[in-house]
Structures are given as structure tokens and as C-alpha cells.
Design a protein that fits this description.
Largest sheet of chain A: 7 strands, mixed
Distance between the termini of chain B: 92 Å
Strand content of chain A: 25-35%
CATH topology of the largest domain in chain A: BirA Bifunctional Protein, domain 2
Number of strands of chain B: 9
CATH architecture of the largest domain in chain A: 2-Layer Sandwich
Low-confidence stretches of chain B: none
CATH architecture of the largest domain in chain B: 2-Layer Sandwich
Strand order of the largest sheet of chain A: 30-33-34-38-37-36-35
CATH superfamily of the largest domain in chain A: Bira Bifunctional Protein, Domain 2
CATH class of the largest domain in chain A: Alpha Beta
Order of helices and strands of chain B: HHHHHEEHEHEEHEEEHEHHH
Helix content of chain A: 25-40%
Shape of chain A: elongated
Mean pLDDT of chain B: 91
Number of domains of chain B: 2
Low-confidence stretches of chain A: none
Structural class of chain B: alpha+beta
Largest sheet of chain B: 7 strands, mixed
Number of strands of chain A: 42
Shape of chain B: rod-shaped
Largest interface: A-B, 108 and 106 residues
Oligomer: heterodimer
CATH superfamily of the largest domain in chain B: Bira Bifunctional Protein, Domain 2
Strand order of the largest sheet of chain B: 1-4-5-9-8-7-6
Chain lengths: 845, 347
């Protein structure tokens, strides 16, 4: 909300500098982020929490001036010369403002005009350039006439974008007065919290400021200066559902004439962010901004006509099925059956609290105005706003629950303002339909309640004093305060909720700044730690230590994006996804089921910038569960690698590319970090992977994940280079469950090991795992380690064969092994290998 | 005292000659031949011992002694020269091995954690030291947990604070904050006291640009127990701010509104870039908003299974991406999940 400083000062004596006022508003819960200055110099910045902007009007250079005569320019039709008095001198000033043409050549003006005048060397905004561009007034000749000063438009002073005409001030403006003194102002951009609708108006803010400064509020007089006949027989009101429309108040103003509002009214409306229209509409807007009650002005004669000359009857009711109304934005709207309408006997007049209808709207020809102030159910208003997608200043307020008391206050102030600016006579009295007057809640709070929640000790009296400053009506009983919520607030609840609401008010007025910070003394809960967090940490650290870069992807994706992991033409049926009903883009319309797809895409995104990439991500995937409302969110790990095995350096050019075994080595290191020993990688097939370069990782019976080189046809779906792309996806929940919580160390061996090499010729189809298994199971407890150290293929081995060489480490915990011990084992191992796998063990040379 | 014996004179001449030659020797080959010439078994000095009988008997001890003296001197000089030449050879070799130490080091493969993993861990650590433990909850949530039970009924004005992604399943949404974890934790632990850190990804319906993201981390803090006050909240959060932003940082809490807390507030820290003078990081304001906080609303306590007349608590929520953006001057929030390694490898 834009809060106009001068307007605020009408209701409370603010003796604070602008900076301090902004701070006070912020600490009251109305955060001020920006302050727009009109004419005032920028205060010294620094730790104010506010940014200032605006144009300074130098008091020497900008003054109120009087135009006594408007004369034709000797050489230009579109320019005029004004005879002007600036308080000191009589001057001749050149201007092209069209709104001065009507006065041209009329001789000395009977009613001189008051204008905002800028002297030579004044700094102001260029009226002819878009945006706000500073310029300095210089002496120059325009079509043979010297010009050195200017009568200003709003744009030139930084008030609005208006630059066609010059400002014509109210006739009371005193010439010679510095402009900043006459109309300098500040506009505070304040954030109105959703529960603070009672502050979404100038008086509402003034109340808070008054409470803060311990000063009285100067509320406008609401006595009606009625001169006309009574309203009573001019209109009747019927409320069908008082839950939806608790109150409906109208007043009547007869014999008005719509005209431009006084300049100070237009000026304030503009500063508050509203466009001036005419004196009738401006009055409704002004009072809404001033007092917080959105008003609606009907053309009374239209109502009379619609009633066929009978007394018009206002009926408020919900819309009928299929009922339509053309609103004043000239849109015909089909209404929902929950939407509350203001109607008469001939049908709908307006959408209650949201927008008026076109037909009964006031126009320049309107002479009799029926002014409505009402109270509406805020939730119902919100439903209508959502359904009609129709926001307005009125609905902004009504959808936040405006107190019914404001309906009457608003109409009273509104009638007076309207009569003052448009003429006319106020009819005697109001018609006020208020079937069940609201009872504002009374909250009982104790000294100990305040201490228990805020940690400060206040006496009942002190609590009451704070609340009374906010217009709560308080009585004290011992340590209890009974506080009744003021008749303009709707944010104070009942019972335990009301208590919290009132304690918040105590804290706010006491000042958050004044509550001393303390350390938690409450009982410490049982310390449980968090296994999944510890798991993630271990896995992330291990992988980063192994040289991988962690990535974090969007969880929102598309099925197409995940299907890229399958060769074109052999995509599986699209699985069920958690789908977003209102996605921001089609490529972000479901929640991922595959983490590997995210990491492979991350690899793709970077592949052109990096010669080697090793990426991983951990996080949930989202799998709909037909037995549960919410999907399962199992944690996954995905890894993707591609590029050079070693980074290139200036003396070594890498040629080796990352391959299957680099990825496998990473997974083995991870399993080692988790102290998982009993895992196996078995050859497997998966459509995403190369059929010969794919493995399944299992631990016991559990399948933990897949790894492999991307199938060449899958690679084609991405913009990868020639290097193979390796990827793996692991079920983290399972992996971690299978990781032992504890493990034990092996004592360091006291006796030396015996190391032997064993080379054998093996058919191609025999796997290393098979050979190792035979060696280990035959070697018994003395055989500590088996390591493959060489594979060789060549003519001497024979086609279809390979030579595999293993290094065997034997060791006993209690003695030095002899050749005899080892020899016996070796013979058993060789025999077993030859028997089980048909290998030929090569004899030592 | 007789005149100098002829042998002694010869010895002196020999010594002088040997010393002169040694002086001019520069390399170890010449040194070795010098040694062979003067100090080997067949060398000249040695021959004087054989020639002793040429001298008168009474001079012989003196000549022998002198010959020994010459031999020792030459040996000592040889050793000195030998070590000098070795040193010179070594110096020359080392000189040849001289590197251009300004050449780049060989790149090792350093892995890295994502910057947000690091920032989250930092936050966890600070809160863990105050007894707050990580409590995780689902990212896809029920409307009930995300809104209703947090005192945000349907059509309430407070709902405007969150733009929500709905799933196609009625009543199921992407959580807009980690606050549903408050209800889950309370329902799990009531009536025990609670101190938890609630972290994780949250989602908001927005158009993505440099300062708006649809997916973001949040970390919330929840303390529930007996006699937990606003003062405790202030103290806890001030300690956090000091740990996170530096011992001398100034903070303020100003009133704000979140439906699940009351009184509610927002905490600002004095801009640590300009020290409060106003700069582009703080938008000229001097203060940076870092978290929302407040005393747990009685409705939320009740929904969690705690009697609000007996128990109280506070909650606070902060944005780890904002912390990184401020700290590392990241000007585009899209960098976080864009996975561009050129960004990630800067941490």
C-alpha cells in the first residue's frame, strides 16, 4: 500500500523524521521497503532499512506562482506566453501546455491560475523523454522568444507520467511559497500483512502510529450535515443471507455535478496509486483509501427507472444458476451460484464487494447518487474473485474481512466528501440493514500467559495500558486482563486463539526490540540423530573424495525426458507418474521416477565444456503408490561419467577414456566405505545399456542397482561425443540398510606372507568371478587374497582363449608358512581349477 | 746444524710442483692422474723413502720425517680438492635439473559437493550444537499437512502467501514449505519436548527467472516444550546469525505474519557487505532479510497433540539458497539446479 505522509499527518501529530517514521512502521509490522520523496531531500542513508528515491525540489528554484494572463506567442501557434508572478518578480514564461490554450488572449484573468513554477537552473525531469531523465533548465531562445524557466507538468516534478498539460493548483495556493513547503510529500510503500486489513487505509495506519507515539488519533467527524429530506422512503434494503452480507448501509446525495476534484485530492489519489476520474468516483476511492471501507456509488435515477417509478428496493442474494451481469469493465460475466450480488427488483446491479455493474454506474450526467457501504463474507468474496479472476481494490479489502462497523463510517465520511467536491444535498439519515450486529470478542489473558509466551514480566495494569493504546477495551481483575477487541478489527479470535492474538499485540506494542534474548532452558529432547542424513553425508563425502562432482537437478521433469534413456523404437510403456495439475511448462509436468536420467542430462549439458566429467546426485524419486495417498519417495544415487580417465597436462596427453571399470571401481570403493563385503556384480541386460557392458549389483538376494555403458542407440538420443558414457543408479535405502552398523578390524599379521603367481589359459567365456571363486574356496583360510594382475590374449594362447594371471597371498596368523604348506595348497587349487573350469594352469618357468 | 740436505731441497721442490699442479686441476680425471703421480706407491714422494740411505745417517730421521710431512700435506690437499670437485660436479648436475617452477601443477581430480549441500550442512551443524536434530518429511504432501493443520484453511487470505503446485490427485500437492514437517514431528513425538531442524526441497508455482525458482531448499527450526518463550526464540536465532554471518553482526526481528505462528516475525541482519551503509547487495537498505519466525500458533500445537495452555514453542524458517546468493554474490538463482559444472566447480 502507498501511504501518503501528508495524509497520515491529518490524523496524528507525527513529530518523527521520515526515516524514524519508516522504522516505526516497520517495527509495528508494516514493513517499509521504499520511500518515494516528492520535493524533500533524501535523508542520510545508512542502516535505515529503506531505500529512498524521488526528485528534490530546491526551495529557491521551485515555487508556487500566479499566472495573471495568457498571451499568444508571436511566432508559434502551439506556444503561449504567460504573464506570471513568482512572489518576487513579474515574468514572461513560455509554455506549450494545451490546458492553458483556453485562457489565451482573454486579457488579464479574473481568476488568476496557480501553477508550479521552476526557475532557471532548476533540476527536474525532462517532460519529453520517456522514463525519468534529469535535466537542468537553461536559458535559450525558442522561436525568437527567450526562455529560462518553466511552468511544470506532473511528469517534470516526478508526480506522475502526465506531461501534456501543466499542473493547475488550487486557487488558495500562496504564490512565492517554495513548492516543497506547499506540496512536498513522501510516499511510504508499506507491506500490509494478510491479517492486517484494518491497516490497509490511512486512518488504520494513523491509529497504529498514534499508539506507538502515545498520541491521540484525530478521527474525521462523521456527523452528517444533512439538509435534504429523509432518505427513509427513497430506498429499502433486504438481505437474504446475513452470513454472506452482515450489513448494508446506504445514504443519498441529491443534485450533484461530476467535475474534476480539487487538485490536492487528485494529487493524493495519484500518490496513493489511483487515477483521478471525477469528483464522485474520486470521493468513493478517497474514502476507501482513507477509512478502509470500499464504497459503491449507484446512479439513483437508474434505480428509480428500473423500479418503474416505485421506491427502489435493494436485495442482496446469491446468483441464480446461469445468471449474467455486465460489469463496469464492460465484460459480461456468467456468475457462480455462490456469488453474492447486489440486486434490485429488475435484477443484478453489481457483484457484491468486487465490481459494480455497467448499467447503474455513475456517469458525468448523474445528479442523484445512492452511496453503498456494506460488509461481506470474506471467504465468499475470495471464491468469487478466484472464479471470476477479477481483482479490484474493493475485493482486495473485502476478501481480507472488513469489520461491519466500517460500512456506516465509510458512508458517513463518503457523503460528506462527495458533497464537498461535487455539490448537492445530503438526504437526512441512512438506511442501515444490520440483522445481527457483530459482538467483538473479549479475551482474558493473565500476567503468566504473557510471561509464558513472551518471557517478559508485565503487570496486568501494564498489559492493559498497552492494549488500550490499540483501542482494546480493558478491565482488570487481579492478574487478569479482560480485553475487548476494537470495533474495526477482525483478526482477533476467541479463547486460546484470541489469547495468542492479544499476546502478539502486547509484544508488538511493547516492541520486539525490547524483549530481551534468552537461551533455551527447556528440557532437551532425546537425541536421536538422523540416519538418512548421516547416510547421505557418508555417500556424498565418499564420492566427492573419489573425484566426483555432486549435482542437484530439478525434480520436475517430463516422461519424454526420461524416455531418452531408451533406444528409439523400443521405449517401454510410459509408467505412472506423480503429475502436476498446473505445471509451469510441459517439460516440468511430472515428478521424476529416474535419477539416472537427470544425471545423464547434466552430463550432456556440460560435455562440450569439459574433457572429463564425473557426476553424481543423490535424492528421491517419486513413485505413485496405489495403496497410499502420497507417493513413495525412495532415495537413489545416480552416477554418470564420460571423457578422459586422467586430465590432460602440458607434458602428458591423455588418450585413455573412462570406461566400465572406472565406474565399477567407484562403486566398489563406495561399497568398501560402507563396509559391505558380500556383493556381486553379474552380467545383465538392460535396454539403456550396451548388452555386453552392463552389470547388476546385488547384495545377497537384493538387487541394489544397475551400471553399464550407455547403449550406442541411447547415446544417439543425446548430444554426446564419441567417448563412452557410463552410468549407474543405486537404491540408497536398500544399500544403506545392508551396510553393517558396526565392523571389526583384523589384527596386523605377525608372520610374513607367501606370495605366489598363478597364470592360466582360460576359455573366453569363463569369468574372473568364477575363477576367483574356485581359488578362494579351495585355498581355505590360509589364502588371504587373490588379485588378478594380468590378462593376455595372443596367438600362442590360441583363439578363443585368454591368459589370466593371479597373485595369491597366503598367510598364517601363528607361524611362518613353509614351501611345503603352500605347495600342497597350490596343487589343490590347480587341480580344482582344471577340473571345474577346464583351464590350463601354466607351469612356472 | 748442517745445511739443508739435497734430498730435502728436492722434496721441497717436488711439493711446490705438486701443489702448483693440484691448484690447476678442475676435474676428477686429472685429479686421479695427479694422485697416481704424487701419492701412489710408485709416486715420487714414496721414492724418497727408498733413497734415504743416500743421506748421512744423522740426517736420515729428519729427512724421513720431512718426507712424511710432505706426504700428509699432499694427501690432505688432495682430499680437499677431491671434495671441492665433487661439490662442483653436484652443483653443475643440480643446475642442469633446474625446473621452470612456474609451469602449472599436474591436475588432480578433486571432487566437490554441491554448494547447497555444504550450506545445508553448515546450518545443520550450528543447530545441532544447540540440540536441534534433522527431521525429514516428504516433498509430496497432503493439503491437510501443508495448509489445514498449519492454521491455513482453504480460501483464507494467508493462502495468497503461497503459490502452489497441485498434483492431479485431489488433496495432494508439492509442499510449499517444510512446515508440514512440524505437524509430522509433533504427532510423532508428542508429548515429548521437540527440537528439530526440518530441511528439504520445497516448490512454488512461479515463472522461473534470475530471482524466482520453482524449487528451493528451506530449513525450518521447531522447538516445543514447556516454558519456551519469544525471548528464547530471539536468543536462539541471534546465536545462529552470529555463527552464520559473523560474531559482530547486528540483527533485528520485526513483526510479520505467518498463519502457523503468533507472534510472528522476520529477522534481518545488518548487511554484511556494506555494514549497513546501503549497497547493491542489500538494495540500499542496509538490512538483509534472512528468516521468518514466531511462536507456534495454538491451533498448530493442538493439531500436533500438545495442549497450548501447557506447551509452547517457536518455529523459524530460512532459505539456504538466499544465504549462498548473498554470501557468494550469486546473481542468478537458476545457477543452483542448472548443473553447469563451470558454476559448481567454483566452490
Amino acid at each position: 500500500m502507498e501511504l501518503v505522509y501528508s495524509w497520515l499527518k491529518e490524523y496524528v501529530d507525527v513529530d518523527l523524521p521520515i526515516v524514524d517514521l519508516a522504522h516505526a512502521l516497520t517495527m509495528l509490522g508494516m514493513e517499509v521497503e521504499n520511500v518515494r520523496l516528492l520535493g524533500y531531500p533524501k535523508p542520510d542513508g545508512g542502516n535505515t532499512g529503506i531505500s529512498f528515491h524521488g526528485l528534490e525540489w530546491d526551495p529557491e528554484k521551485f515555487v508556487v506562482a500566479r499566472v495573471d494572463e495568457v498571451m499568444a506567442h508571436p511566432n508559434a501557434d502551439r506556444l503561449v506566453l504567460c504573464r506570471l508572478f513568482d512572489g518576487k518578480d513579474e515574468l514572461s514564461v513560455l509554455t506549450g501546455a494545451p490546458n492553458l490554450y483556453p485562457y489565451k488572449g482573454k486579457g488579464p484573468l479574473a481568476q488568476p491560475l496557480k501553477v508550479a513554477y521552476a526557475r532557471e537552473a532548476a533540476k527536474l525531469y525532462d517532460g519529453h523523454k520517456s522514463g525519468q531523465e534529469l535535466t537542468t533548465l537553461k536559458r535559450l531562445k525558442i522561436r525568437g522568444v527567450e526562455s529560462f524557466s518553466m511552468i511544470c507538468s506532473e511528469k517534470e516534478l516526478g508526480i506522475s507520467e502526465e506531461h501534456e498539460g501543466v499542473i493547475i493548483l488550487d486557487s488558495t495556493a500562496p504564490e512565492g511559497t517554495p513548492l516543497v513547503e506547499y506540496m512536498g510529500d513522501a510516499v511510504f510503500e508499506i507491506a500490509i500483512l494478510p491479517n492486517m486489513v484494518h491497516c490497509a487505509n490511512v486512518i488504520g495506519v494513523a491509529r497504529e502510529v498514534a499508539a506507538y507515539l502515545k498520541k491521540p488519533l484525530k478521527f474525521p467527524d462523521t456527523t452528517l450535515l444533512s439538509k435534504g429530506p429523509s432518505i427513509t422512503d427513497k430506498i429499502s434494503i433486504k438481505i437474504i443471507n446475513a452470513d454472506l452480507n452482515p450489513r448494508f448501509v446506504v445514504g443519498l446525495l441529491q443534485g450533484v455535478k461530476a467535475q474534476p476534484s480539487p487538485y490536492w485530492v487528485q494529487y493524493r489519489l495519484q500518490l496513493a496509486g489511483m487515477r483521478p476520474i471525477n469528483s464522485i468516483v474520486d470521493a468513493t476511492n478517497y474514502v476507501m483509501l482513507e477509512a478502509g471501507e470500499p464504497l459503491h456509488a449507484f446512479d439513483y435515477d437508474v434505480l428509480l427507472k428500473r423500479a418503474g417509478g416505485e421506491t427502489p428496493k435493494i436485495i442482496t442474494r446469491t446468483a441464480r444458476k446461469g445468471e449474467k451481469l455486465t460489469t463496469l469493465d464492460d465484460v459480461e460475466r456468467e456468475l457462480d451460484d455462490f456469488t453474492e450480488l447486489v440486486c434490485d427488483s429488475a435484477g443484478a446491479l453489481s457483484i457484491a464487494g468486487v465490481m459494480g455493474g455497467l448499467e447503474s454506474e455513475v456517469t458525468d450526467q448523474t445528479t442523484n447518487v445512492l452511496l453503498e457501504g456494506a460488509s461481506w463474507n470474506f471467504i465468499n468474496i475470495r471464491k468469487t474473485v478466484a472464479s471470476q479472476r477479477l481483482n479490484s481494490e474493493a475485493s482486495y479489502r473485502f476478501s481480507r474481512n472488513v469489520h461491519p462497523a466500517l460500512a456506516e463510517t465509510g458512508v458517513r465520511i463518503g457523503l460528506q466528501r462527495m458533497a464537498a467536491w461535487s455539490g448537492g444535498t445530503i438526504a437526512e439519515g441512512l438506511v442501515d440493514e444490520y440483522p445481527t450486529p457483530r459482538v467483538d470478542p473479549i479475551i482474558v489473558i493473565s500476567e503468566s500467559d504473557v510471561e509464558r509466551i513472551l518471557g517478559i514480566q508485565l503487570k496486568a495494569k501494564e498489559i492493559a495500558v498497552l492494549l488500550e493504546r490499540l483501542d482494546f477495551v480493558c478491565t482488570i481483575e487481579n492478574d487478569l486482563v479482560n480485553a475487548q477487541s476494537p470495533a474495526y478489527r477482525t483478526d482477533i479470535g476467541k479463547d486460546v486463539i484470541g489469547k495468542a492474538d492479544v499476546i502478539e499485540e502486547v509484544a508488538r506494542l511493547f516492541g520486539f526490540e525490547n524483549i530481551p534474548p534468552t537461551r533455551l532452558q527447556a528440557e532437551l529432547p532425546p537425541q536421536r540423530g538422523n540416519r538418512s542424513e548421516e547416510r547421505d553425508r557418508l555417500i556424498q563425502d565418499t564420492l566427492a573424495n573419489l573425484g566426483l562432482q555432486e549435482v542437484i537437478s530439478y525434480r520436475l521433469t517430463s516422461p519424454e525426458s526420461e524416455l531418452r534413456l531408451y533406444p528409439a523404437g523400443s521405449e517401454p510403456e510410459v509408467p505412472q507418474y506423480v503429475e502436476i495439475q498446473n505445471p509451469i511448462a510441459v517439460e516440468k509436468r511430472v515428478l521424476r521416477r529416474s535419477l539416472i536420467a537427470s544425471v545423464v542430462e547434466a552430463l550432456e549439458r556440460n560435455i562440450r565444456h569439459q574433457e572429463r566429467l564425473l557426476l553424481f546426485e543423490i535424492g528421491p524419486v517419486f513413485l505413485p503408490n496405489k495403496d497410499e495417498l502420497l507417493p513413495d519417495e525412495p532415495a537413489r544415487l545416480a552416477i554418470a561419467l564420460s571423457g578422459l580417465r586422467h586430465p590432460n597436462t602440458w607434458d602428458q596427453k591423455g588418450i585413455q577414456l573412462l570406461d566400465f571399470f572406472d565406474l565399477k571401481g567407484i562403486l566398489e570403493a563406495l561399497l568398501d566405505a560402507l563396509h559391505i563385503k558380500e556383493y556381486v556384480f553379474t552380467a545383465d541386460t538392460h535396454p539403456s545399456f550396451h548388452p555386453g557392458k552392463c552389470a547388476l549389483l546385488s547384495i545377497g538376494e537384493d538387487q541394489i542397482g544397475w551400471m553399464g555403458e550407455l547403449h550406442p542407440k541411447v547415446k544417439e538420443n543425446y548430444s554426446f561425443l564419441e567417448a563412452p558414457v557410463l552410468a549407474a543408479e543405486i537404491d540408497l535405502d536398500m544399500l544403506f540398510t545392508l551396510s553393517p552398523k558396526d565392523f571389526v578390524t583384523t589384527p596386523l599379521a605377525a608372520y610374513p606372507p607367501v606370495i605366489e603367481d598363478l597364470a592360466m589359459i582360460v576359455p573366453e567365456g569363463t569369468t574372473s568371478a568364477e575363477i576367483e571363486k574356485v581359488i578362494l574356496s579351495t585355498g581355505g583360510i590360509l589364502l588371504k587374497q587373490v588379485n588378478l594382475f594380468d590378462i593376455f590374449r595372443g596367438e600362442q594362447i590360441g583363439a578363443g582363449n585368454k591368459s589370466m594371471a593371479y597373485r595369491l597371498t597366503y598367510q598364517a596368523p601363528n607361524r611362518t608358512l613353509t614351501d611345503n604348506d603352500v605347495g600342497k595348497l597350490r596343487i589343490r587349487i590347480i587341480n580344482q581349477l582344471e577340473k571345474e573350469l577346464g583351464v590350463i594352469v601354466r607351469k612356472a618357468d | 746444524m748442517s745445511e739443508k740436505s739435497g734430498l730435502i731441497q728436492e722434496l721441497e721442490a717436488l711439493q711446490a710442483k705438486a701443489e702448483l699442479e693440484l691448484k690447476n686441476i678442475q676435474d676428477s680425471a686429472a685429479l686421479q692422474s695427479w694422485r697416481a703421480e704424487y701419492l701412489s706407491r710408485s709416486a715420487e714422494v714414496m721414492s724418497f723413502f727408498k733413497r734415504l740411505p743416500e743421506a748421512p745417517i744423522e740426517d736420515r730421521p729428519r729427512i724421513g720425517q720431512f718426507a712424511n710431512q710432505v706426504k700428509t700435506i699432499l694427501e690432505t690437499q688432495f682430499e680437499k680438492k677431491e671434495s671441492a670437485i665433487k661439490q662442483a660436479d653436484l652443483d653443475a648436475n643440480l643446475q642442469n635439473e633446474r625446473l621452470d617452477v612456474t609451469l602449472p601443477g599436474r591436475e588432480t581430480t578433486r571432487g566437490r559437493l554441491h554448494i547447497q549441500t555444504l550450506v545445508l550442512r553448515e546450518i545443520y551443524r550450528i543447530f545441532a550444537e544447540m540440540g536441534f536434530q534433522v527431521y525429514r518429511s516428504p516433498e509430496v504432501e497432503t493439503d491437510e499437512n501443508n495448509f489445514e493443520l498449519l492454521n491455513i484453511p482453504a480460501y483464507h487470505p494467508a493462502r495468497d502467501l503461497w503459490d502452489t503446485f497441485y498434483t492431479t490427485k485431489p488433496g495432494v500437492i508439492m509442499r510449499t514449505h517444510t512446515s508440514p514437517g512440524q505437524v509430522r514431528a509433533m504427532r510423532e513425538f508428542a508429548p515429548e519436548p521437540i527440537r528439530v531442524t526440518l530441511p528439504g526441497m520445497c516448490y512454488r508455482y512461479e515463472q522461473i527467472d534470475a530471482s524466482h525458482e520453482i524449487q528451493f531448499n528451506q530449513v525450518e527450526l521447531l522447538a516445543v516444550g514447556k516454558n519456551i518463550t519469544f525471548g528464547d526464540m530471539k536468543g536462539t536465532l541471534e546465536e545462529f546469525a552470529k555463527r552464520m554471518y559473523g560474531e559482530s553482526v547486528r540483527t533485528r526481528i520485526r513483526p510479520s505474519y505467518f498463519p502457523f505462528v503468533e507472534p510472528g516475525g522476520e529477522m534481518d541482519v545488518e548487511c554484511f557487505v556494506c555494514g549497513g551503509k546501503g549497497c547493491s547487495v542489500c538494495g540500499g537498505k542496509g538490512w538483509l532479510e534472512i528468516l521468518g519466525c514466531g511462536m507456534v500458533h495454538p491451533v498448530v500445537l493442538r493439531n500436533g497433540g500438545y495442549d497450548p495452555e501447557v506447551y509452547s514453542g517457536f518455529a523459524a524458517g530460512l532459505g539456504p539458497e538466499r544465504i549462498s546468493m548473498l554470501r557468494y554474490r550469486i546473481d542468478d538463482i537458476r545457477n543452483f539446479w542448472g548443473n553447469d559444472v563451470r558454476f559448481l566447480e567454483q566452490f
